[in-house]
Amino acid sequence: MIRFLQAQLWRLCAVGDEYAQEQQQLWRDALPDIRITITYAQTLDGRMATRTGSSQWISGAESLRLAHELRASHDAIMVGVGTVLADDPRLTVRLVPGRNPLRVVVDTTLRTPRSAAVLRDGAASGTLIAHGPYADPERQRHLTDLGATLLPLPTGVAGGIDLQLLLEQLAARGIASLMVEGGSRLITALLRARLASRMVVCVAPKILGEGLSAIGDLGISRLADAYHLSGVRVTALGADQIIEGDLVYP
């Protein structure tokens, strides 16, 4: 049903009339009720990592503390497997008081190593890995033995995990708020599918030139079709600027 509604949304987007906008809202109302916050740190020139993938740390200490506050305020935190391989994040709350959210890794072919921080030292019991239908059974067994929860899901048109079905599964587990920390492919997919609700972006006073961008192609060719934020708030944290607001899709 969700896939059918999405297909109708993209068809109606091309119409551009009032009726189409009403139908788009109906489609969004049918999506799983999870508030998704995308958050990341970037440089002044829009890079979230160097061209070699180095990203620790773009932001300052105050912004890192904010990131942990955000983790503590969400039911779950999600990253793609590329972030696990590049940064090996723990995805826990350490710099402020609070509980650890459920850790969700989107990993179509189960590339997450057994030594990853989200799995070692007992962390696996609080980690869910969403994978595709053709993931290696032996790797599935190894990760299950560590205590991780594996969630097999079909893949979408682009070959990645069907994110709408993943959100349905998370909602069924009682997840009402989801924080997404990266990487670029996952952030782009969520934005392109118009699934994200809010953004909290840290802009650090650094310049990298060539590097990795947080957001890829969204298929936008006209400035009038750009996504924007409402209720924008800009806060200085140390040398960084934090820009946050609710996403508005045209």
Provide a descriptive summary of the structure in words.
With 250 residues, the protein is α/β, with parallel strands linked by helices. It folds into two domains: 1-30; 35-248, Dihydrofolate Reductase, subunit A (3-Layer(aba) Sandwich). The chain is 29% helix and 27% strand. The chain contains seven helices and eleven strands. The protein has helices spanning 2-13, 18-29, 61-72, 81-87, 137-146, 163-172, 184-192; strands at 35-43, 47-50, 76-80, 102-106, 127-131, 149-152, 177-182, 198-204, 211-213, 228-237, 240-248. Helix 4 links the parallel strand 3 and strand 4. Helix 1 (2-13) packs antiparallel against helix 2 (18-29). The relative contact order is 0.20.
- Which superfamily, in CATH terms, is the homologous superfamily of the largest domain? Dihydrofolate Reductase, subunit A
Q: Provide the CATH topology of the largest domain.
A: Dihydrofolate Reductase, subunit A
Strand order of the biggest β-sheet: 6-5-4-3-7-1-8-11-10
Shape: globular
Number of domains: 2
- Order of SSEs, N→C? HHEEHEHEEHEHEHEEEE
Strand content: 25-35%
CATH level 1 name of the largest domain: Alpha Beta
